[in-house]
Every structure is written in structure tokens, then in C-alpha cells.
Amino acid sequence: MKPIIVGAGSDLGVHIDGAHLGPVQLINDLQSFYKGESITFLQSEDIIKSRNLSDRRKNEYEIEKFNKSLYNAIVEKMKAEYFPILIGGDHSVAIASALASAKIHSDIGIIWIDAHADYNTFETTVTGNIHGLPLATINGYKNQDLRYYHDGKIIQAAKTVIIGARSIDPAEKDNIRYSGVTLFTTDDIKEKGVETIMEEAFKIAGYKTSGIHISYDLDIIDPDVAPGVSIPEFDGISEEEAMKINAYLIKHIEDIVSFDLVEFNPLRDEERKTEQIAVNILAQIIRAVENKNKYQKKYY
Q1: CA 125 to CA 113: how far, in whole Å?
Q2: CA–CA distance, 8 with 43 (Å, rounded to integer)
Q3: pLDDT above 50 for 18
Q4: Are 107 and 209 contacting, i.e. CB atoms less than 8 angstroms apart?
Q5: Cβ atoms 148, 64 nearer than 8 A
Q6: Cα 290–91–116 angle (5° rounding)?
Q7: What is the DSSP letter of 184?
Q8: What is the DSSP string of 50-65?
């Protein structure tokens, strides 16, 4: 598989502006060494974004329209044997990327690396921000309206692992408990170490599956280190731990079928700290996929 960068410039899933600018900035940063194919989707400038606190379905129609186009494009690229590296945008764009991967590979697992579990439903969401609903949607746990365009398998909760969550709504905790998703908190990472947590996550997400989708949210990192995210949560992991996670992914790239990096918000970054971390993560993943492709061409 050849890598393809897919820019998903939308921040419709969160009331704070700026994440829609992240993909273009990061793709520009990568041009010095990445010469492969890329496609970019941008939210319409004509959209009047809802920020109404009482609105539990903020920008639902616009998100569905954006994600449907994104989903269809990724499905077609994966049919052509590309490895999609999606750059968000808020985490609602991962509904499209993960389900597109599930459409092509039929039976995959997912590892959700995030300070938030993103396991709300329209009934349990506190904010109405749809970037808090994507993982539940991907697992088929309610939220049917957000995946109406998908006609493949959903990703089973039993093959789903959340890593790094430290801010979970009370009702969301019940959703996670009832669904059967495996959850490792930031405290688990600090107590057991990155290698142990990642090894367990790959065992669960990779058990009798055809591959694993990785969705990496930059807000897992402590905002003192990576401030450029829309919803920062303190007591996060260090940059060293973030890069150890990436190193583990690269080591096991043969088991990965698709990858997201989301929630970079350049309007909230300081001294380009988060941008540099994001570029490093992406550069390493791109190189790993390119090397994987060279290996397959040489030996198969």
C-alpha cells in the first residue's frame, strides 16, 4: 500500500474554532519530504457554525455531509491500495476514516488514543459537540444518524481500545461499561509504561481481525507540552511518552491499515510546540508506510 495524506479540515464537531486550519498547515509542513499523493477536504466557508449550548446536535447536517464525502473518497483510495493517513480537523472526522477502513477490511480493530473517550450519544452528551460522539458511532453504539452513509461492518466494541482518557462524562462512563470497550487511562500509562499498555491494546484490537485502525488525538499530550488543541486536559502524557506510542506503532506497522492524527488547532498553539510534535508523528508514520510498501514490493 502506498501512503496518501487525507486532509480533513473541519472543526464543526466542536464549538471552538481553529482545528479546521490544522490539516493545511501540517500538509504544507510535510511538503519538504513527502512527495506522494494527498487530497484535502475543507468545510464550507458559508456554514454558520452552531455554538448554542442547548443544541445537542450541533452542526449535525453539515458534519454528515462533510463526512460522507470524506468516507467515499477514502473508500475509493483504499480500493486502489492506498494507506490513508488522515489529518484532522476535530475528531468527528474519524467517523468517516474508521468506517471507510472497516468497509474495505471488513473486520478490523481500533485503538483510540485520546484524552477523551468520545463515547457519548445524543442522549448523554453534555456539550452537544459531536467530536465527543465518534467512537460510539464507529462501534455502532447508537448515533445511527452519524453513519447513515456506511453500508459495511461497524468496528466491534470488543476489538476497541481507548488509551489515555482522563476526562470522561458520568453518563459516558456507563456507555463504555455497557459497550464492552477496553479503557486505559493516562494514569495506567504512567503506572505501567507505554510498552505494556500498547502491547495489551494490540492484543485486543488485533485478535482475529484483518488489521487495526489507529486514531491519535494530540490532546492526549499535556497542554503544557502541546497547547495547540481545542479542548486541552491537564495531567496528560509527556512528549517522550507520545513519541514512544508512535515508536510502537511504527514497530507494528504491518498490523495497521489506516491512521488518523487529529485536533491540531494552530490558533491555540504556542511557539509552534504542538505543530512540531504533530509533524514528527506524521513524518515517522509516513516513512514507516513507505518502507512497508518498499518491503512488500521487494519480497512479494
Answers
A1: 20
A2: 8
A3: yes
A4: yes
A5: yes
A6: 110
A7: E
A8: ---TT-TTTTHHHHHH
Look up residue 76 and give its amino acid: E
**Mutual angle of helices 60-79 and 94-105, in 10-degree steps:** 40
What nine digits make up the cell of 240? 517522550
Q: In order of start, what are the domains of the chain with their CATH numbers?
A: 2-299 (3.40.800.10)
Q: What is the pLDDT of residues 78-126, one digit of tens each?
A: 999 999 999 999 999 999 999 999 999 989 999 999 999 999 999 999 9
Residue 47: name the closest of 31, 33, 58 by CA.
Answer: 58
d(CA 175, CA 170): 9
Helix (H, G, I), strand (E, B) or coil at 80: coil
The cell for 31 is 511538503
C-alpha to C-alpha distance for 160 and 109, rounded to whole angstroms: 6
Residue 293 has pLDDT above 90, yes or no: no
pLDDT tens, residue by residue, 223-240:
999 999 999 999 999 999
Q: How far apart are CA 184 and CA 166, in angstroms?
A: 9
Q: What is the distance between the alpha carbons of residues 31 and 283, in angstroms, rounded to a whole number?
A: 10
Residue 69's pLDDT band (cuts 50, 70, 90)? very high
Close Cβ partners of 232 (under 8 Å, ≥ 6 residues apart): 219, 223, 268
